[in-house]
Amino acid sequence: MDGFGIMKMELRKTFQFEAAHLLPLLPKSHKCRRLHGHSFKVEVVVAGECDPKLGWLMDYADITAAFKPIWEKLDHRYLNEVPGLKNPTSEEVAVWIWKRLKPKLPQLAEVVVAETCTARAVYRGE
Ligand SMILES: [Zn+2]
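Above: the input record for the complex with zinc ion. Below: its predicted structure, written as tokens.
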């Protein structure tokens, strides 16, 4: 058989959602305590061994399909009102996504949540 033998691979698929939040546990003087919004970027990372026949780990469309119902709960929402996200820091949003996505996407290896172009939180399920 031609091919490359067993290939361990990681796929990264990026999504975006727009949402408002405030961080209620911070002092009133902190800017993140005020209501504001972000264009959040989420990176969903899956990892594992590629299918030797197809030469891929999985269909990117399957990642999109698994994430879509979660995305719908976040996009154009006030995150503080989403059940489970009373304190919607990037860190807590990443864990919240992980808990909902992992059962549908067992190869999930990492969830990255970026509030801005220069700041992001990475969660690997531990
Ligand atoms: Zn913020």
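Notes for the reader.
The first strand starts at residue 8 and ends at 21.
The chain has a mean pLDDT of 95.
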